[in-house]
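Hi P.,

Sorry for the delay on this. The queue was packed all week, but I finally got your sequence through. Input first:
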Amino acid sequence: MTATQDSVLAPTLSSRYYTDSAVFEAENQHIFERQWYYVGRADDIPAPGRILRRQVGRESVILVRGRDQVVRGFLNVCRHRGAQLCLTDTGDVGKAIRCPYHAWTYGLDGKLLAAPNWEAMESMDREEYGLHTVHVEQWEGLLWVNLAPSPTPLIDQLRPQIEARLADYSKFERYRLGDLKVGGRVEYEVVANWKLIYENFQECYHCGTIHPELVRTIPEFQSPAMGTGGYDPTGYAIAGDLESFSLTGRTVLPRLPHLLPEDDRLYYGMVVRPNCFISLVSDHVIVHRFEPVAPDRTRAVCEWLFPADVVDSGDYQVDDAVALFSKVNEQDFAAAEWCQPNMSSRAYREGGVLVPSEQTQIGVFYQWYLSSLGDAA
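Then the structure:
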């Protein structure tokens, strides 16, 4: 079935966008290697010498905190023979980054410091053989990298998306993500294309079918015709007989300290392109990081953020809050995996259809996606 011009249905992307390795290559080149890409939290590398290794498109990238407390990013490539400098996703390199192959050694600022048999190469210009840098910016405690030569500021990419969701950027700022601390973390290997996950998150047509715990918590999500398919900037209310956004609905945690009374008992979910989801509730924040690995595989990391005193004091149980969206994640990722095998079916060659309540937000996503690919689409 295909949508016609006068149909109430709208077409999805065709099957090749979910299966074709050439499309995935184009996504890496034109999206993940050109736009600001979320790689982790600043407190993942709290001290000088601590590192993060991340795959960004086709490149392995390392981030390291310097002795001046500045976080810098480099391609994970030794300038000598191309060995990976860091072989683990996290670690501590101490005072310098040392290649495990031939021991070329770089400062935490990326400058070449030394190499074995240096006397025989004393005429070499060290300045020419520092590590290749990548752009790094921090936003609300989250670290983003950009592989483009001269990217626009990170806020120019993020702020319009937040405003499109909440209408008021200051509303988002009240949640103070940078002041929060991770109280729960789960990693997932999803056997599905990243866009299937994104499409799912931007519609609630499926919520009444596969998310009984979620629709119990937010009754408005029960309706398959919820709203017009666009985000409601006023948020979605937690059920009146429940005390919190948690699996049992009974766990009471302190309200995030900078919220206003009108922020209480509301849920906001949003896609922050290209690889981040953020969910806001009045006592915690949920942040997803996605790493597209292959046309049919996506790595997902979900973190639950709470005030530091909630995590550190031992006076509060955050497991109930973590358990609700853990369940939602499992259900959503399973749904994406139901779809992925049939992306290569002859029955789906031209794609599927979107019902009216799916069209607004998924339509915005498609517009961004195809515009980002440009001629490569």
